[in-house]
Amino acid sequence: MRQTTGRNFLFVPGPTNIPDRVQRAMMIAMEDHRSSKFPDLSISVLGDLKKVFRTTDGQVFIFPSSGTGAWEAALTNTLSPGDKVLASDFGQFSHLWIDMAQRLGFDVEVQEVEWGEGVPLERTEATLRADKNHEIKAILACHNETATGVTSDIEGLRKVMDAAGHPALLAVDAVSSLASIDFRMDDWGVDLAVSGSQKGLMLPAGLGILACSQKALKALETAESKRCYFDLADMIKHNPAGYFPYTPALPMLYGLRESLDLIEEEGLDNIIARHHYLAEGVRAAVTKGWGLKLCARSPNWYSDTVSAVMVPDGIDGAHIIDVAFRRYNLALGAGLAKVAGKLFRIGHLGDLNELMLMGALAGAEMAMLDVGMEVQPGSAVAAASNYWRNNDPIPHQKVSREEQFYEAHSTGSVQG
Ligand code: PLP
Asked: How far apart are CA 139 and CA 162, in angstroms?
């Protein structure tokens, strides 16, 4: 029987938990998206999203789709059939983007990479240097591979592109990194940045978001791929006045407004620092508490939004996930494709804090014990609490525990 009381503990790496404020903001009566008031909302969200992508030069587009739609928009608006693109395959999402590029008729040069690592910079540089005639028109890179919990070095990728003097467009999947892992569109020279609403932006799935550099927008003029629903030209015609070429997902836009306010209030740097701090606690739980390995091969690949936990031979990760769900009302992420059954994933992105993660760690641990894994009961929570109690979410605002306690008493905010 499935447990149905209490909250469902949602710890898949997207969709993520939606803050109450965002949920309330979406509970609206429908309104006319062609009214003279509507542009107040649309122009404000399009403008503020630029801050989240950290771009001043770029332009952001919002589609009523999921992130996959924004992948398609990125490719079809900037490339022509038969164009060569370079991409690395190191997890289900980098793989699916390659699959889409192939199905759309591009000539994809695939760099196979062991799952557990990310974009190989040296290999990429060598490939780019060898491409003397600049036949490669775009590089597709998955910033955070959600299937394996691996983050690639996009700044480093830009550096190797520059070192090779290669003019390809840099297209980055920032679906599970935007607003949670450091991402700098302008500084890193990203031309196409793809994201979705259901991860760091703390909304339901339903918005595909694409940020384009001026170079990418210029490519629109020559890109011959067939496109219609995802044609940026239609957006470019309507967006400046605050309208969309078709009916926008109104509640989602109101939710987005609220989530952008939350991001502004917490501060993007603080959000990124919080994700790192929470992730470090989870990693301590996995490696020091349970003594297990992450799928990410080494710390330089560690993702601050998702940890993929390898399970020992003879144990089925899917079984752990099923027990966690049915017995403890906890949703963990499954191993996908090549790693199905070999791991389970803990999503740690979005609206989260230590105690919520404690619940997920405790629940995962109980499920692991239930399926016969030998882990020390309480070890994950002990290791995570040890990390979190001795570290601060925002390092530059370091205030000791004693000071926090003293402050609370001396200002009289501790009652009774
Ligand atoms: N890219 C990455 C890294 C993802 O994690 C996902 C979804 O989880 C996608 C792309 C696909 O996005 P969507 O499911 O919103 O279409």
From this structure: 13
